Structure formats: C-alpha cells, structure tokens
C-alpha cells in the first residue's frame, strides 16, 4: 500500500495533479473578493469596494502562459518549471492566494495524493467499451464549482496479489 511517507517521491503524480487543476480548476472564479481601497494593478485602476472575480479557468488555458499546447493535458510541462499550488505562483492559483487563500489546501493535497496513488497502485484502469482516453467527454458544467457534465465511467481491475 502507499504510505504518506511515499508521497514526496511521487513527482509525476504531483505533475498530474497540477495539470488537472490547471485545466479543470475546482473553483473556476475562486471566491468573489472586494477591494478595500482604490488600487492600480498592472495599469488597471480598481476602485474601492469593487467585486473582484479571478478567472483561474481562463488563466489555466492561456497560451501566453502555457504555450500553444495549453488545451492539451500534458503533465510533463511542469517538469522543469518550479510552479507549485501554494499561491506563490500566480499562473496556478487553484487554492487562491494571500490571506483569504484556502486553509484546507494542505489537507486537500495530501488526501488527493494518497487516494490517487492508491488507486493507481492497486488497480489497472480501463475505459468502458474499448473507449480511448482521447475520446473521453471532458465537458464541464460551469458554476461556483466546476464538476464534470457527465459521469466518469472507468473499470478497475485489482492487480495486487494478497
Ligand atoms: C481540492 C480541494 C480544494 C480546493 C481546490 C479548494 C479551493 C479553494 C478556493 C479557490 C478558495 C477561495 C480562495 C480565494 O478566493 O482566494 C477556498 C477557500 C476556502 N476553503 Fe478550500 N479548497 C479545497 C479544499 C478545502 C478543504 C479540504 C477545506 C477544509 C477542510 C477547505 C476550506 C476552505 C475555507 C474555509 C475557505 C474560505 C477561506 C476564507 O475565505 O478565508 N477547502 N478553497
């Protein structure tokens, strides 16, 4: 079984999680914030008391940030880029950033890594009816959160010998 102490060694899993958040952020517009003062950011004047939505969905698909293959699921793009999910790298702020960033981030990241690592370690996975991965319907249902529009169906086969 995968233990929590194994997680630091699972570099590719981390890249897969980042890539999943980049293309399919849980909160596509984060949570609305309000500016407490007049401020100018990058030449744009934002008056006090404006409602601010940060479109992480569009940031995650911006070719200026992620190059021309921005729409492609390609975890290796993180191999030589020191981008983490902790809110320091503004290209990828799936958990928000700053003092109102997600306080559950650490719990969420550890749980996700553990669950995904166990699922990959214990089972072989197949799509139903010989479907190929690139035929999978990845349509999203937009809202405050961004679930799949259609359920994911996948067939596990247990492959660990007792
Ligand atoms: C995949 C898992 C999760 C994701 C992607 C996520 C993402 C987010 C995002 C984007 C925000 C808004 C940040 C901002 O607007 O700057 C947020 C806020 C928050 N999250 Fe999470 N979250 C996750 C899991 C959790 C868990 C496990 C907990 C609690 C155990 C949690 C508790 C909170 C709370 C309390 C806030 C509001 C913080 C505030 O307004 O000061 N989240 N989260």
From TrEMBL:
Belongs to the cytochrome P450 family. Its main location: membrane. It comes from the Eukaryota. Its cofactor is heme. Keywords: Heme, Iron, Membrane, Metal-binding, Monooxygenase, Oxidoreductase. This is Cytochrome P450. It is found in: Membrane. GO terms for cellular component: membrane. SUPFAM superfamilies: Cytochrome P450. The lineage of its organism: Eukaryota, Viridiplantae, Streptophyta, Embryophyta, Tracheophyta. One of its GO terms (molecular function) is iron ion binding. It holds the Pfam family p450. Heme binds at residue 102.
């Amino acid at each position: 079984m995968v233990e929590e102490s194994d997680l630091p060694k699972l570099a590719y899993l981390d890249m897969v999680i980042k890539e999943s958040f980049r293309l399919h952020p849980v909160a596509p517009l984060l949570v609305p914030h309000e500016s407490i003062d007049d401020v100018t950011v990058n030449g744009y004047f934002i008056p006090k008391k404006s409602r601010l939505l940060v479109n992480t969905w569009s940031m995650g698909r911006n070719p200026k940030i992620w190059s021309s293959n921005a729409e492609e699921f390609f975890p290796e793009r993180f191999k030589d880029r020191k981008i983490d999910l902790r809110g320091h790298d503004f290209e990828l702020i799936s958990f928000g950033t700053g003092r109102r960033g997600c306080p559950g981030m650490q719990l969420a990241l550890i749980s996700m890594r553990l669950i995904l690592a166990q699922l990959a370690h214990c089972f072989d996975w197949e799509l139903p009816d010989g479907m190929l991965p690139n035929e999978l319907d990845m349509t999203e249902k937009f809202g405050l959160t961004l679930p799949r529009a259609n359920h994911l169906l996948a067939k596990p086969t247990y492959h660990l010998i007792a």
